[in-house]
Amino acid sequence: xxxxxxxxxxxxxxxQGLQTMGEAFTRALVRSGYRVHVMQTYESRxxxxxNVFAIRxxxxxxxxxxxxxxxxxxxxxxxxxxxxxxxxxxAPAIADEEWRSPTGMNLVRVPYKKLAQDGFINTVAMAIGGxxxxxxxxxxxxxxxxxxxxxxxxxAEAGRRALERAxxxxxxxxxxxxxxxxxxxxxxxxxxxxxxxxxxxxxxAGVRFCAFYPMSPSTSVxxxxxxxxxxxxxxxxxxxxxIAAINMAIGAxxxxxxxxxxxxxxxxxxxxxxxxxxxxxxxxxVILIGQRPGPATGLATRTEQxxxxxxxxxxxxxxxxxxxxxxxxxxxxxxxRRAFEVAEASQGxxxxxxxxxxxxxxxxxxxxxVEGLSQVxxxxxxxxxxxxxxxxxxxxxxxxxxxxxxxxKELVVADSHEHTERGHITEDLELRPKMVEKRLRKMGxxxxxxxxxxxxxxxxxxxxxxxxxxxKGAIMEASRLLGAKGIKASSLHFSQVWPLCEEQFLNKLQGxxxxxxxxxxxxxxxxxLIRRETGFSFDERVSRYDGLPITPEYxxxxx
Amino acid sequence: xxxxxxxxxxxxxxxxGCGNFPILRAVKEALVGLDLEPHQVLFVSGxxxxxxxxxxxxxxxxxxxxxxxxxxxxxxxxxxPNLVVIVESGDGCMYGEGGNHFLAAIRRNxxxxxxxxxxxxxxxxxxxxxxxxxxxxxxxxxxxxxxxxPFNPLAVAVALQAGFVARAFxxxxxxxxxxxxxxxKHKGFSLIDILQPCVxxxxxxxxxxxxxxxxxxxxxxDPTDWQRAMxxxxxxxxxxxxxxxxxxxxxxFEENFxxxxxxxxxGREVNRATLRTILEHYS
Lengths: 559, 283
What we know:
The structure holds 2 protein chains of 2 kinds. By secondary structure, chain A is an alpha/beta fold.
């Protein structure tokens, strides 16, 4: 490995508190001065099945999940058999003393039930791991409390006692694991997953309305907004279906509230007609699509990047749009902000593409400085427009002055039909092309704000790994690993996948001996889009569509 | 003072004799009677001949997609509770394509006034059966007559304890004006199902047919009596009751949101100090 890190895998079944424990452990590591990266995988069920919460941590920013496991925390016997092959040589596996286990494993056999008593075995397993790594007990206890939240004092108390017994047990019986080195002087950090960062970015940008229909993995965006809705003044409504959700958001936005709609592929399929409505009525709306494997219901709790072409083409008729694909927690926050700005500036639909992996991936970030951040302010001063007001006034930029209904005596008329400048239904076929062109001219506003792809590594590399969205860390780490082997390798990551501005990246692609497009889909959607837009054909593609996230090792195996 | 002239007088794309004309007139008169000016009112409509109505008067308008007027209106009302929000669409748009939204909007009880031009037939698409067409109604698309039972919007609304449920008839304009005004004044979801002849495609349910059957509810009728309202909502045939079938005083949906206590959220500054504290929850 190019940078030092240790990979802990917690495995168990749904309902065992894996998530709480994993989150607490993650926070404890960050509070102890480490950088972290979490990968979760789980089955679509409330109880049972096999779930994983993997935490990779070290002194430097951790970019991607790693397949080799350095410490296994098993909450059930099955975990030992499932992850046996991923364990590094002699890596310890923490398990209950009574479980069967594969031969040749370095087992730390723990009397889970005896140590848990009135607490939970997940707390015990976490504490054993923490103690073996030398994490202070108070740090772990504090992190657990912060995750469980206030008002659960009794549980916390039982948890605390279980932690103490586990630490005592490790002192008497325990192995120690050499923790990775720490880096001094790291700024204080918080821990967010992708969708928490999206929601907080939206709040900072001034989101005031969210409507959603629950669907994995997008629900967490709405849940985070609901959590802070009262403090921040946000209306969040669980709609009767996705069609209602997006139409509500369009209604709220028309009336003056910055609005977001989180969904996933199947839910978005229901929203598509309204995407077209946002476009023709020129109403800003931000649509987040947390991708998961399709077609149809697909694999509900797994990850994929197969909805790029769908989102790019969703909606009948021709109109401009922007599609962001954040690859890090910071990008989730800042690109969501940008999505709101561009939706407002271009008066239309703007998309954010995440996926299951990124949605659930906790990482440490420096708390965003919120002071200097701008917010969107829909609507213009009614006194600044000519009377009678023309909602769809034909302008050079294509953007017409937007007034809010009820804010003045001027009437705001929005229409899904082709319409006059006033907003009324028309079949004036001479006006029609002018309106089409006016709407399309707004692409200029979007193009002016395109986020250039991020290039890392030497110029004119032998291997260039290209990706978009959540695979950012994996392609960066894979190219660094190639570099460590003496191969001249670089990476190019698109955090905005539409529109593409070839002047921002084409020379990089052409300069590489071997350009490889890495995508979490079967058909190479970004590769095809780049070819369509620029004529550039990739030499090679790395695809993954088994429902698991792309790892650096996966890329290297397939090159 | 609001005047009828403020609401304008526009050319329409409706057939001569269409039931939409008297409804349009009644809507304008109702608004003027309540002294509401055009800029205070937002019309939200879907698609269909009825849904074009807001284009033929002066007001704020959001003319959206077929069947989706209610969610748009819900979003707009939550965004700006000061707007008088009127939803105007036909039976196909509201009860067919928009059926799920109809149920959910009644359950929410958002302060909307919903005017359904119910002519029991699809006009814009040229004469197919609608959700409220009577069984056996013959069209080119249903040559053997409609097989399904008609949707009874009033019974459904009363069953769901909608805030305000009324029926009116386009041929009795004065009564219709009264119903629209009562609906607007009611705080919560108000449904006014307006029976309306379609002179081009419905040759059964004509002006004459309705005129013979529509009878105002008796003076001693108590619309807060849910069981009686349920019974009245089911009456259809030789006698069709018109008037306020049912009403109650459920709190309107907007009242549930503490963040709306100080008025609309439009134009509020993001509270950065609070946001900073929120970020600390993730440490």
